[in-house]
Design brief:
heterodimer; A: about 10 residues; little secondary structure; about 0% helix; about 0% strand; B: about 220 residues; mainly alpha; 8 helices; transport (chain B); transmembrane (chain B); ER-Golgi transport (chain B); ER retention sequence binding (chain B); signal (chain B)
């Protein structure tokens, strides 16, 4: 989603 | 994905699977803190709430499911497996871990990246992971038992921490505007507590070796 940082680490 | 991050994920996965296999193969969980394992299960469940909302990669989704399933399997074995549960050191594993859960949640309410249910729970899981080793540390100090907590488990868990810190340094140097204040600070705290755990593990292991001198 735009503007929301995605947690790409586990 | 850089090589440090991949190595960190793999050693983390190995540490959990090794513990699970070791418990299952020996049918014993003596020396393992169920409270620490339950905290890890809580950590994964609350961190991966985004499984249903954000898709990052097949690798990411697969690893999340494996982490949740394997940590729940360890807890299940220690609680309900008819043979394994009998070897649980109940009277030694008395750390008041609800205090850790409460403190981590309170901190997450204060310090988070965004005030939303998912983000507060994400921060909560990061803080809880940092301190989840404490019940295990207390159990180890009380029992001096290093039979089941294999050297490999301790080694791989430590390697996971070290690789993740290298990963953050690498990303900080190579990616513009890369910052991980919450994960980075918690990661350093977790690594420091782990170093303490490792110290006691080593002392305990050394003492046990000494006791095995031929009579």
């Amino acid at each position: 989603p735009l503007g929301q940082r995605i947690h790409d680490e586990l | 994905m850089n090589v440090f991050r991949l190595a960190g994920d793999m050693t983390h996965l190995l540490s959990i699977l090794l513990l699970l296999l070791k418990i299952y193969a020996t049918k014993s969980c003596s020396g393992v803190s169920r409270k620490t394992q339950e905290l890890y299960a809580i950590v994964f469940i609350f961190r991966y709430l985004d499984l249903f909302t954000d898709f990052i990669s097949v690798y990411n989704t697969f690893m999340k499911v494996v982490f949740i399933a394997s940590s729940l399997a360890i807890v299940w074995c220690m609680r309900f497996h008819p043979v394994v549960r009998r070897s649980y050191d109940r009277e030694l594993d008395t750390f008041r871990y609800f205090f850790l859960v409460g403190a981590s949640f309170a901190l997450a309410l204060i310090w988070h990246e965004k005030f939303s249910v998912q983000e507060v729970f994400w921060a909560f899981s990061i803080y809880l992971e940092a301190v989840a080793i404490l019940p295990q540390l207390v159990l180890l100090q009380r029992s001096g038992n290093v039979d089941n907590l294999t050297g490999q488990y301790v080694f791989f868990l430590g390697a996971y921490r070290a690789f993740y810190i290298l990963n953050w340094i690498y990303r900080y140097l190579t990616e513009p505007r890369f910052t991980r204040w919450i994960a980075g600070t918690s990661g350093v705290v977790q690594t420091a507590l782990y170093a303490d755990f490792f110290y006691y593990y080593f002392i305990s292991w050394k003492n046990n070796s000494k006791l095995k001198l031929p009579a």
